[in-house]
Backbone:
């Protein structure tokens, strides 16, 4: 696929253990049960932090000077994966649940319908499958 017709996204995907207590959480891989994204602004001075919580979508703008590396924001127990994704203009599936995984997949342009959980997303992007 031509990279000219695509959008390039460089970001960090942060995987953590969810603090939310819900019966469905027992189906998630315990150490990785939540994910969110940190993206540097075009000028490189800010972090765009998109954190889809269970109850709401949180977006934050933080100075890179305050958090030179995502580890300083995410904490010592987080798993941080740098991702370079080329998002194609091909549409995504229309039906999905509003979960942290689906929001991160949407930001990265991942169109794999069968990636449901943060653990599956972690395995998917660490295997080099960042598109489609």
Residues:
């Amino acid at each position: 696929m031509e990279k000219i017709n695509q959008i390039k996204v460089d970001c960090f995907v942060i995987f953590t253990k969810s603090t939310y207590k819900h019966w469905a959480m027992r189906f998630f891989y315990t150490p990785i049960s939540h994910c969110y994204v940190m993206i540097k602004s075009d000028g490189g001075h800010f972090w765009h932090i998109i954190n889809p919580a269970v109850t709401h979508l949180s977006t934050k703008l933080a100075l890179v000077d305050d958090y030179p590396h995502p580890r300083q924001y995410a904490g010592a127990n987080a798993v941080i994966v740098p991702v370079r994704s080329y998002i194609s203009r091909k549409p995504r599936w229309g039906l999905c649940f509003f979960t942290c995984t689906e929001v991160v997949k949407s930001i990265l342009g991942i169109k794999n319908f069968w990636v449901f959980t943060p653990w599956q997303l972690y395995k998917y992007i660490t295997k080099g499958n960042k598109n489609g």
The mean pLDDT is 84.
